[in-house]
Amino acid sequence: MALEVNDGNFDDIVIKSDKPVVVDFWAEWCGPCRMVAPIIDEISHEYEGKAIVVKCDVDSSPAISAKYSIRNIPTVLFFKNGQIADKQVGAVPKKNFVAKLNALI
Predict the structure, then answer these.
(1) Domain carrying residue 94
(2) Active-site residue 56, yes or no?
(3) Catalytic: which of 14, 21, 23, 33?
(4) What is the CATH number of the domain that holds 45?
(5) What is the number of structural domains in the chain?
(6) Total-model pTM
């Protein structure tokens, strides 16, 4: 299962990671976010040890959401070496997320 990150622990878990990090920005009330959630969980299991997969609730983490200009959800950011390496906005098939993540490993 994907880890939960928030304004308080985002830098420690995402920015300081030595592995690629997938960050799913979502909200409880977002229908497309609920469609992406099982895909993100599958990826977190499949890439265990190779990448870190986290979820960030935009409603409870407004500072991080603002810092990365999250305007539409779901938005999935792909980090490598503390920097954004790729981005996916909207509900898309699993293969789209996997292709972006594989490019960073």
Answers:
(1) 3-102
(2) no
(3) 33
(4) 3.40.30.10
(5) 1
(6) 0.97
Among 14, 22, 23, 30, the active-site one is 30
Q: How far apart are the C-alpha atoms of 53 and 17, rounded to whole Å? A: 11
Where on the phi/psi map is residue 92: left (φ > 0), alpha (ψ -120 to 50), or beta?
Answer: beta
Pairing of strands 3-5, 52-57: parallel
Rounded Cα distance, 8 and 14, in Å: 11
How confident is the prediction along the chain (105 residues), in pLDDT tens digits per residue? Answer: 789 999 999 999 999 999 999 999 999 999 999 999 999 999 999 999 999 999 999 999 999 999 999 999 999 999 999 999 999 999 999 999 999 999 999
